[in-house]
Every structure is written in C-alpha cells, then in structure tokens.
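Work package 3, deliverable 3.1, input record:
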Amino acid sequence: MITELRDLKMNTPKINEPQALLTIQDLRVWYELRRFGFGHAGYVKAVDGVSFALAEGETVAVVGESGCGKSSLMKTILGLNIPTSGEVVFDGENLSGLKGDGLQHYRFKVGYVQQDPYGALPPFMNVQKILEEPLIISGMKSREERLARIHKVMSEVKLHPVEDFLKKFPHMLSGGQQQRIVIARAMLREPKLIVADEPVSMLDASVRVEILKLLRALQESHGLSVIYITHDLSTVKYFSRRIFVMYAGSLIEKADTRQLLGNPLHPYTHALLAATSDPEARNAETFKEVPPGEPPSLVNPPTGCRFHPRCPRFMAGLCDVKFPPDLEPEPGHFVACWLYQ
Amino acid sequence: MLYYPSAIVGLLVVFLLVFTAIYAMIKIPYNEAIRLWRGGEEVWYQNPKFAPPAWFNLFSSKKYSESFAVKTSDGSMTREVTPGAQGTSTMSIAYTFDFSYDYYPQELILYFTSSYEEKQPFISAEWLTPDGRKIRLVNMALSQKQTYRFSQDEKLKTRLRTEEVIPYLFSDPETGALVKGEYQLLITGAAFEPDADINVEFVSHGQVYGLAGTDQARRDLVVPLLWGAPIALAFGLIASLGTSVLTMVIAALGTWYGGWIDELIQRITEINLVLPFLSILIMIGTFYSRSIWVILGATILLSIFTGAIKSYRSIFVQVKESLYIEAARAYGASSPRIVFLYLIPRMIPLLIPGLVSSVPAFVFLEASLAVLGLGDPVLPTWGKIIEDANSNGALYRGYYYWILEPATLLMITGLGFAMLGFALDRIFNPKLRDV
C-alpha cells in the first residue's frame, strides 16, 4: 500500500506533465518450474513486485545486469508474457482484460525495437515485405497506401534513397541499416510507446550514437514514450529522462537521470556506476571494485533485500529479514534500501 | 548451379524423363496405352513372343531374323486381279523379301479375309527359294476369315517329310544349311463371284522385334517403357511433394501450438515408426485395392509421421524462439500467419533438396510393389514389366533384355534425382560445401 501511494505521488504532475500513458502496479511475472514434466518445483520470479508509471512523451531507461528480469518486464509490457499478478494499464485500458482484437489494437500502439537487428528481421523477406507485414496485419488493404507509409517511415529513419533498400534482404544491409529497418518497423503504425531492448548493444560503437540520436529525434518529433532497456549506463544519458535500476526482479532505485548519475543512493547503483567503463587513460591501469558474488537465483531469491548477500553496507537483522519499501530521501528519488529509512 | 557437374547431369536426366513422359502421353494417349497394354492376341498378333529388341543384331555376329508384317489392303503386298468369264476372276498375290539372317523366323502366318456370297474363293500358295526350288504350300477354299500357320500344316509336314516346316523352307534340303537371298511367297487365288474379294496379310514372327522387344503376350515393350515414365514421375513427385509438405506443415503446427497437439503428433510418429510400412501397403494391396491412387494415398499417409517430423520439429523449436518471430508476435501476427509465413519459409532450403532426393525412393517403392504382384492391374509401369519378366522366368530363359530395360530406366531415374538432390542440398545449405 505504501508503495502504491508513493508511486502515485511520483506520478503527480511536475512540469506540465500529461497524464500517465502506462501504469504498472505491483507486477509479478513468475514462470512455473516443473519436475519430471508435471510435478511443481517452484517458480522463477523474473519480475517480482514492479510498479511505475510512464507519462506520455516520457523516456525512461531500465538498467540492470543480465538475468535481472528486464526482458521479462519488457515482454509483459509488449503483451507477450502473461503477468502472474498485478496490472498493466495502457492508455486507460487494463492489459489483462484484453483478448483477440483488443490485444491486437494494443499491439498497434506499441512499437518494439530489438537487440539484435539481424535476428529481428526474417532472413527470407525483403525490406518491403518486412515493412508491409505489420501494415497488412493492421488491416491496411491498399498496396499504394502501404507503400506510401513505408516510404514516409523509411525517410524518417534516414534510409535514403528508399527505393534502393526496398528490394534488399536483411543480410545485404549493414548492422546500422538493419537497426534502422527495425526502428522503421516499430514506427510504422504510429505507436504511442516504443519499447527498445538494448537497441545499440550489438552495434559498432560508431553507429551507436547515430541510432540513439535517431531514436531521440523520433521521440521528440512524435512525442513518443520510450522504455529503453539496457545494461550499459553510458548510453542512458542520450535520451532518458528517468532511470530505473532493476535488480533480481524488482526496481530498486528510480530517479531522474541527473539525480541518479550524480547522487546514486542504492549500494547496487553505486557498484553499477563504478563498473561503467569510460575510455580514459587512467582507467587502463586500475581495476574497478565490483561487488563480490553473483546475481541471485530467481528461483530462491534471498530473503529481505535481494542484494544483501553482496552488499558492502549490509545491516544484519534488518536487510536479510524484511524487503525494504520504496523510500524517498530526496524529492523524486526513490530507493528501496534500509539505509535511507 | 552450373558449378556442380552432378546438378547438370541430374537436371539433364530429369528433363529427359519429363520429355519422355510428355512424349509418351502425346504419342500414345492414355486410353490407347491402356487398350494396347491390356490387349491380347487380336492387338498384338503381328508380334513374336519373347523377342529381344532388334538392335541386338548390332552386337551379334550371327543375325536374328527381324519380324515383319505386310498386307494387300494397304499395298505393301502386290495383288493383280485378272477378270475371267462369267464374273469369275483370278488374282495373283506376291511378296518378295530379302532374307539374310542366321536364324529362322519363329513362325510364318497368313491371315486371309475374303468376301463372297455362296461360292468360297480358292487359293493356292507357293514358296520360291533363292536357289530356285519351288515348294507348294497349300491349296484350300477360304472362309471369310482364315488363318494359315506354316508350321502347323500337318499335310505340308507329311508332304515335305519333316517335322520342322520353317527350317525346311529356309534351308538347302541336301546339306540342311540355311540359304540367304531373295525368297518369294506366291499366292494364286480364284474367286467365283463378281463381288468376291480376297485379302491377305503375311506375318513373319522373327527372333527380334522393334526397339524394346516383346513379352509373353506379344506386347511391344516400348508401350510400358514409355508410359512407365509419366507414371513413375507422377507417383514419385506426388508422393514426395505430399509427404514432405504435409510433414513440414504438421511439424510446424505441432511445434507452434505445442501442448497436447504436439504430444499427439509425437506419439503418432513414434507408433508409426515401429509399424512395418511395406507390410501395411501389402495388406492394403491384398485386401482393399491395388489402384495406384489408393497405394499413393496410403504411402503419403504412412510417410508423413516418420523421422522427418522429428528432425523438422527440432529445427522449428529453434526457429520458434528467434527474435523475428517474437517481433511478429509483438506486432500482432496471428498464429496461422506465423506458422505459414514465418516458420515454414525458413525451412524451404531444407525442404527442396530433401524433396528431390526422396523422389527415387517412391519410384522404387512403386516398382517394388509391382514386383511383389501389387502393382496397379491396369497401368503399364516399369515395375509391371519386371513382374511379368519374373513370373515368366526371364532370367532362366535368357531374356535379359526384359528385366534390364525397366531396371536401367529405374536406375537412371534414381540416379538423376539423387544427383540433383545432392547438388541442391549443397546450393541451399552452403555449410556442406567444404565437407
């Protein structure tokens, strides 16, 4: 209850903020484990009690290491996973109540940019076919209309001249061009929300910035909301206004980008920031301090704070007993850590 | 494709087969082919039995006599009619032929057809040898249809004092040696009515015949050999296409929907894998129907749920998890759309070589069934030729051509498709190139 109240508080308009586009309430995504194919053997708690709200036109980054539940959260937002409990409300509609056509329409309003652009494009379709598919599915019957839309979106993602690309197959394009196609595909149906799952992690460093700038330009010109999922804090500052740090299935710190990068509160965030590499000469000679141990198993997560076995500031009797609530030591900066009680 | 010699050879063979098949269907339409294949003595009376093909002579120092048939009605035998008094007429029919072989013909036959009202016409036939002998064969009155077989004329046997008429006619009576040269058959006929008429057909059943030889029912083997091609191709291609496409679709559906559908498909496959395929086909052939279409349907049905479904499934399980499928789900593609437009197209490169390489297996299956006596009773196929040859003891009696002709065609077909399939496999799956 406290969590919810605080979340609501967080969502209260600050700077002429429009109403929430996406609200997630205490979301849990558990995968059942089976023994010998039928016996119950526990759950993988990939997402465990996540709440946040996303305003229209807002950009947010979800940061966390591999296996922390980022992808499960993202897939649930995309409607690919069915939440075990909790609510996903998009544009006033509850996702769990949607079936068939309703789900279909929801999907038209959400664009998806994947990590590996080559894998994300069917290798046996040419660019035109790839881009026509979502339009055909959304019921655009006229071929001319579809082509006009494709032309428009392809010039928006700066694939010039459009005609040169239409007949090409994915393997004939460079990584950057492939990712532009993936972005174009996400933009085709004028979505309100884009979910970008590590959109630049598979690209060359030289192309990364361009793709991020492109995403930013699209976000600004179309007033899109963007959920940017990454494990790489160095790319976050390009266009995310807020950052959520995720650890072992829950969001442990939520703050504005500046606040979080300038004044990280959670010990895990500290460690994460410290581990971010910067190409500086002196970094070549020093080793960074990383928290000992490994991310916890999601089947049997540690009791209390999930981070306590690795935490340098672990308080016995508290951290390993009770899960910390979202605390707000400074305005708009939420952290789930007993240190700030 | 042209970098692969086996592809070129394979393609050539396949094209040749397709060309043969089309040629066969144009040259001998289906109904005609069935009439010829099912026809008995009345269709094939001009042909010898068990005759190897005529080109045997090219490889043999001793020449076998070739068959021929001539008749007065189409002018290949000359006929002169001389009108006599009171409506009578005499006619002389002659046929001269060059005999330069080293073996006697099997049989010589005269087929007479005559028309008259009351008085039967009368003929007498004579045989003129190159060394100037003149042998009287027969004098007889004709009924409307009459057949005269030289070797079975008992009177002639007595008169010539020999049991073997044909050798006698072609050899020197003193030495018994075969005489080569121009022989002449002379028939003198007498008709006693104004409208009476006599026509003769002279047939020599030689030792060799035509391009492909003949079988026990005097049938020209060219017919089943030619018609075997379209039937083998149709059976092989339909079975292979049906099997691989259905297998792939079922594997894809099972993998995509998962759950009990997948379980059901897997269990059916496992059961089917231990069922004896050929025995079931033999049972169907024995108890139900030997029609090629029934067998084809049963073959396809039994071949769907085989190991292939398992190997396709293993790949589909991988493809199912791929990012582009996830993307398609995220933009709202329906399940059937994903199965048919996203899963299956990924497998086409595997499907096509497999499809081509499995054609010969089905062609051989059809032939095997025919050899086992379960071939289609109506259609002329390569397998049927082998079955006939086998049941007539072709190998014991030395009629090797009878088995080798269809067997060679079967082997060439198998080889052609196999070579093409291997080449296609390399083209579609470049990883195999270095192996």
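The beta strands of chain B are 68-71, 78-83, 89-99, 107-115, 122-128, 134-141, 145-149, 181-191, 197-205.
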